[in-house]
Amino acid sequence: MDSAGRYAPSPSGDLHVGNLRTALLAWMFARATGRRFRLRVEDLDRARSGSAQRQLADLAALGIAWDGDVVVQSDHAVQYAEALETLRERGLVYECFCTRREIAEAASAPHAAPGAYPGTCRNLDDAERAQRRASGRPPALRLRAGVDAFTVHDVLAGDWTGLVDDLVLVRNDGTVAYNFAVVLDDGEMGIDQVVRGDDLLASSPRQAYLATVLGLTPPTYVHVPLVLGPTGDRLAKRDGAVTLRELVAAGHSAADVLGLIADSLGLPGVRSAAGLLAAFDPAGLPRAPWTFSAPVTHPA
Ligand code: GLU
């Protein structure tokens, strides 16, 4: 059995320093623990043409090397359909006709678990289902979950228990949902270590539970702090020169950008990926978000 970590960007635009920092951390955690390091392009939605190639080139420019072929989610339609069929045969899939608004209203009822799908369509009888189908709204497909919470192990957050609900497997436009695709692909790729931004910590109990339903072992997680822009919000395009290409266009080298990221990881003076890996100490990782402001340019 492979043992591997991964980085799984959505090809929706160029990677900014926050994404690049997470990618470097994922690469370092994998390499420092003797794992392979895989890349996966998560292009089921929000894909912009040419973006994946640019992202891969930027990762390579920083000195990140990966193992094996790059996996592309849109190549996996057959695997997703097969896994869905298996769950369906086990009676674990149901149609959900709810609109966002209906879910929000039901979820705000007294005693509803905050953020959980309230199960409105879970036990529709045949007549009710026929009536909903006749309304013309295509259904999403949900997992009939057997638990309402699950505990994951996170290297930074420790044992972390979070909500599990009847999560969406296929959206009502027919797109395979992120949570389902991630779990299937991580399983298929032999991923047993997931390093990513801590905005996804709350999704990890759902994903880990779904893995167990599919007969897979949940990975070890490392949810790392996000990078913030000068306003204190999550770093974004509006914050100026934030991508590698923008920073290079402003006169900084890839080594300069790597040096900024190394600084933020408490490793000043390091200017290469190999140097980062040599100095990497997971126990010494800063636990607070890094606030990034584009460095002043010094014209040559
Ligand atoms: N594709 C997701 C993103 O770019 C990351 C998913 C994951 O790492 O599980 O936010």
From TrEMBL:
Cofactor field: Zn(2+)
Organism of this sequence: Tersicoccus solisilvae
Protein name: Glutamyl-Q tRNA(Asp) synthetase
Keyword set includes Ligase: yes
InterPro entries for the chain: aa-tRNA-synth_I_CS, Glu-Q_tRNA(Asp)_Synthase, Glu/Gln-tRNA-synth, Glu/Gln-tRNA-synth_Ib_cat-dom, GluQ/Sye, Rossmann-like_a/b/a_fold
Binding site for ATP: K237
Purpose of the protein: Catalyzes the tRNA-independent activation of glutamate in presence of ATP and the subsequent transfer of glutamate onto a tRNA(Asp). Glutamate is transferred on the 2-amino-5-(4,5-dihydroxy-2-cyclopenten-1-yl) moiety of the queuosine in the wobble position of the QUC anticodon.
Domain Glutamyl/glutaminyl-tRNA synthetase class Ib catalytic: 6-243
Motif mapping: 'HIGH' region: 9-19
Keyword Hydrolase: no
